[in-house]
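Q: What would this complex look like in 3D?
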Amino acid sequence: MKRAAATLAILAAVGAFGCRERRAPGPTPPAAAASGNGHNVLLITIDTLRADHLGIYGYRRPTSPRIDALGRAGTVFERAYTAWPKTRGSMVIMLTGRRPSRNGYSKTHPMLLGFNPTLASVLKDAGYHTAALVDNPNLATQNGYAKGFDSYRETWEEGSLATEADRMRAITDGGIAFLRAASPDRPFFLWLHYVNPHAPYTPPAPFDRAFLDAAAGGGPRLKPVAGFHGGVHKVWAVRGQDRLGYYAAQYDGEIATVDQEVGRLMEALRASAAGKKTVMVLTSDHGESLGEHDYYFDHGEDLFEPSLAVPLTVLVPSGKAGVRSRVFASTLDVMPTVLDAVKVSYPPELAGISLLGETMGKTSAGRERLFAQNDRNLVATWDHRFKIVGSPTDEGMRYALYDRATDPGETRDVSKARPADLEAQRRVLETFTVASEREWAQTRRLLGNAPTGTKLSPEACQKLESLGYVVAECSGVSP
Ligand SMILES: [Zn+2]
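A: Here is my prediction, written as structure tokens for the whole assembly.
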């Protein structure tokens, strides 16, 4: 049951578009007594970056030499996944280390709710100087994501930054300025969020032509369509370009563009006093569907691998280089891993686990399975063999089963051919759902009068569309 038009409707960022005083990262505030081992933390999140388009994940094009170098210096998690393949839900989960049933994220509250401790607030309480530079309107201060940050810069709001490339460079420049100004006497937590390679795929030169190879001229012909199914969205269709390969090459061009920015940051970090005592995590909020399952240049409507698999590299000062871990890793694990690495106590009710042991080269069996959910109330779980996806219908949940060992593309529903495996996976999913409901019963009591998402204003629509977003709620396309 696909929707005619995929949406960024969850962008309902009411109030996120007004003017307000912006707090740019400035000099380190007066020192407070810090707990923990004093290591700094740098978190880089690259929006919409699917793992398999990076060199360290085996991609054929040289999209990511600098990210690859960062991965080789530390640990690459080969099986890392988001628990929610859309920006808002994913980042709430990553920054709280909690599932929605604990952090309260839902369609009625599509935001980071204030009752949650966050990675930033926990580190701030531990004496850290905390700063963020983010380039995605979903992550607006009004949506709660600034909690715990001493400064929170939202580049998408800055009129002087005319293009995506300008905003991207501003994130890096701001990050570099922060690193240079950082006091050696007080640890910091710096979070940088790049919106690229989120659509539209419009890399600046030379990356607009960097990958126009034979593959870029191949793939099926795409006709312009009104939504994300069956072709290229009409507002992003490029005259004379109707091959899937062309658009995938431009997506890759955007990755290469961000990769350069990561390189600039790494150089600045290495040259700074903080270089040797910084825990670094690079990951993404979700992947991107590049035509798989007839879903083009978007993410979050389904729970297939392209939207869920993300890169995750972790570098810790005392860690080993060149580690490749095959345990199941989740963006839920970012918070416990970072707090473990800097020896700061966890807040309660974290759903993730620390992956620090892996970065020291101590291999473990890891968890048996992972779960994912989305804005359409789909729910999935997978182990190293099977994946089950539950989709709500008028007649109740409908289940599909995929054998990932023989069908990594998850294209053949084997639920009828393998009834025993279906039943085993369905039971796991139901147990998860029941446990979630039990947690929701407690969490709802905390929601109280928390703000809720409401409809986008015409001004908000205009702003988002000027940034290249396609929002069904704005265009009048029924979801
Ligand atoms: Zn995103």
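A: To summarize the key features: Residues 52 and 58 are 7 Å apart (CA to CA). The chain has two domains: 2-25+39-368, 377-445.
Q: Very helpful, thank you.
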